[in-house]
Amino acid sequence: MESVKPLLEVKNLHTHFFTKSGIVRAVDGVNFDVKPGETLGIVGESGSGKSITAMSILGLVPSPPGKIVDGEILFKGENLIGKTEKQMRQIRGKEISMVFQDPMTSLNPVFSVEKQMIETIVTHEKVTKKQARERATELLNLVGIPDPHKRLKNYPHEFSGGMRQRVMIAMALSCNPSLLIADEPTTALDVTIQAQILELFKKMQKELDMAIIMITHDLGVVSEVCDRVMVMYAGKPAEFTETKKLFDNGKHPYTLGLMNSIPKISPNKEKLKPITGLPPDLSALPTGCSFAPRCKHAMESCLSIDPSLQKVDDNHLVRCLLYEETKKAVTT
Amino acid sequence: MSALLELKNVKKHFPLKSEKILTREKPVLKAVDGISLAVHPGETLGLVGESGCGKSTAGRLALKLLEPTDGEIWFKGNNITSYSGEQLRKLRKEMQIIFQDPYASLNPRKTIEQTLMEPMKIFGTPKNIRKQKVDYLLDVVGLSSYHKRRYPHEFSGGQRQRIGIARALALEPELVICDEPVSALDVSIQAQVINLMEDLQAEFNLTYVFIAHDLSVVHHISDRVAVMYLGKIVELGEANELYSNPKHPYTQALLSAVPETNPHHEKERIILNGDLPSPANPPVGCKFHTRCPFAEEICRLQEPELKPVSENGQMAACHFAKEVIVEKQLS
């Protein structure tokens, strides 16, 4: 595992928002790495900090009120924090690109797809407009849009939701990025279209050899496409491991709670076992473990000690006192 | 068993603006194009389909929130299709709806108490009883009586949906149409609300029509499921039967598209080509033939009827419903 040099390393990232009602700790100590060609999943519910983590990587956190207060983001060994807007613009869209949830609001409605795609390509590569147009046609063909010559002239509203997402993906791929960040790329789509788009991601990754960070709230999507996965809760990673391990041997009570909350399609219907309570207010986090107030296994010490991410197995990290205790018990 | 609610060949066509000026033909969008359904007392009927298939329109037609273009709606043995005004208002007491968006469906200027009392006020419940009932309703949906003085913006999405449910139950209805009640909620909250809805159904003997696009949620909560495609019911059956043995190629593709939460379980996926055709200009013949992997000549010419495909009452609208299955098992 150590042998492959990571493409991206996020170290101790803290992104806070300074608002009238206090400091919102949206991302509060996140560490992870992405290796070339792999798919890393980041799962969590709304407010878990998964999207802000992505926006921090791209330098897109609105500031003020947001600010990266601590940490490092190393992309190919270079720290992205502290880079100027001009420097970031050369990385964004070329080295790292992003696909957003809602393709309707992330495409410009007053320009044709052709114009928007050519703009991206010409900005980053030394090519003529004609070459850029050829490249755009090629890309639309690659993402499975029939009749790409004609479709290039269309405006975003002339595409369906699934087709628009394909256009977004084509645009994101236009400069052969080594890292693609996809923020809930299939959430707004119907299941049959979601299946098409997930297939497309897998195919593109194989053909172009790029790494993907897949941000989602859907554990089904994670199990379909991700190699490794980080579960986030209240701005912190709760569990980080290989996808198979997470589903077979998930450890954190929050992970297990999430899995029990999803209805399974099986003939014997069982009552769902939801997580009780509500996610915490990020501007007034409880002391101790932020999941403790909702946790079935919470102990006295969980309310005062904020656990650190512990290694419980090869490539398996869990932030929970339950496992720190057992580990201590085993070693002593 | 007589049905609580019955739709008989109900249609809803919305008029569209004509692009051609000099034509007599008025284009219409066939949101619901002839569906027949019976909902029995105490059961949950799931209505699934992708966006634009007409499932929400069907729910609204059942409550007469929309006027059907054609067909009949029966409620408790009465034909309510022509009801209006006072007659319809009386009926509202027995049929209620829970909406998808808990942010848009509560009046931001009213306290929770006012919101919950509104329906009771309309039906003349005395004030002291109304006040007691508000406390009771909040308790039933898992909130506390001190919440009643608050405004909607002070609640989270899940709590708002609980308030929406309390409002629907205020008049002790028999039928509740639930239009995507959990799809705006986070997974952990979604499970809480689903459990609440199941408990309430048992306690008050409610009948649900549960409209959703999430196939696993619909399977979990429903006794029977109807699958819709472009304004038509393509398959209808008992939930477990339909999910374990789908007969219509669309149902098969839809179920195979659900992401598997078990990474060891490689499932065979039927990836449908293309998008949903526009309901303003649906294909002739079987509406699914443009995306169907098994389509043949007859599918392009003749629209199949919804007919029984097994002894246990499962129905499908496909010319080849039985053959498709045989072929699948052989391969």
Report on the structure:
The complex is a heterodimer of chains A (332) and B (331). Chain A has helices at residues 50-57, 85-91, 103-106, 113-124, 129-142, 148-151, 161-173, 191-208, 219-225, 243-249, 253-261, 321-331, and strands at residues 8-19, 22-34, 39-43, 66-75, 78-79, 96-99, 179-183, 211-216, 228-233, 236-242, 310-313, 316-318. With 332 residues, chain A is α/β, with parallel strands linked by helices. Chain A has one domain: Rossmann fold. An eight-stranded mixed beta sheet of chain A has the order 6-7-8-3-9-10-12-11, with helices on both faces. Chain A has a four-stranded antiparallel beta sheet with strand order 2-1-4-5. In chain A, helix 8 links the parallel strand 7 and strand 8 (211-216). By secondary structure, chain B is of the alpha/beta class. Chain B has two domains: 5-18 and 26-222, Rossmann fold; 249-331, no CATH class. Helices cover 33% and strands 21% of the residues of chain B. Chain B is globular. The model of chain B has no long low-confidence stretch (mean pLDDT 88). At the A-B interface, helix 7, helix 8, helix 9, helix 10 and helix 11 of A face helix 6, helix 7, helix 8 and helix 9 of B.
Question: What keyword list fits this structure?
Answer:
heterodimer, A: 332 residues, alpha/beta, Rossmann fold, eight-stranded mixed β-sheet, four-stranded antiparallel β-sheet, 12 helices, 34% helix, B: 331 residues, 2 domains, 11 helices, 33% helix, 21% strand, globular
